[in-house]
Amino acid sequence: MSNYAIKHMNEDHKDVVELLFKKYAFVEDSSGAEVIGLDSVSITIQQNDKKINIPFLTKVDENFSFKDVIIELYNSVKDDDKNDKIQGQMLEFIQSFKTVLISSLDDEQCVTSYAPFVKIDNDIYVVISSVARHYHSIKQNPNKVSLMFLQDEKDAKTIFARVRAGFEVEATFCDELKDRVFDELEKINPKETALKHIKTMNDFHIIKFKLKNGRFVKGFGGAYDTFGLKILGAAKTKNPHDYKK
What we know:
By secondary structure, this protein is of the alpha+beta class. The chain has helices spanning 2-12, 14-25, 66-77, 83-95, 133-140, 178-188, 194-199, and strands at residues 34-38, 42-47, 50-55, 99-106, 109-120, 123-129, 145-150, 164-173, 204-217, 223-227, 230-234. The chain has 2 domains: 1-78, Alpha-Beta Barrel (Split barrel-like), CATH 3.20.180.10; 84-234, Electron Transport, Fmn-binding Protein, Chain A (Pnp Oxidase, Chain A). The protein has 7 helices and 11 strands. It has a 6-stranded antiparallel beta barrel with strand order 4-5-6-9-8-7. A hairpin with a 5-residue loop joins β9 (204-217) and β10.
């Protein structure tokens, strides 16, 4: 079956083969690329002396044929040169979260935590207690903070390429927006009873994160540089992976 699939891909779907090679080999010209191997978990494509192995998003089994998994792989990258579409996917991904991961620096020690957030315009606002260590690390180093929105493991096709959006940010404390931020939090978390109590506590503060340089990764070979919430284009890098001969 795999030999037939290889022949079929090279003869009838050369455009798909060349697109996959261009995307995953990080080359501009993929003409002449051919499939040389297929197994239940990956496809191997070669152009001249350059060979790459691309993992499928779904394993071939009794429920998923070679055709199914190759179409799935192709559909995941076919629009990757359309920044507007990728940007829409990134915004939809971010808006699917109610909390965000935060990394900050406290006396040269990295601190990682999370906080509930709301997006207002193009900025991220969080509510953090001054009791928390990351409150003090952010206050100490407001320009050495990063955020990450990370796909849940149970929803990922592979744990090695979870969808994620990460940003360098600049932090500003702005308690004058406390009422507005809590109003927005209550709108998107209508069943969260703790909000009404936390709103009255003096140790909870509002921090605004202005997004700067970032990267959106939608899977293997699908990395995009960003500035704020704007996709700049595919990440400019050569293929960083090496394969056994």
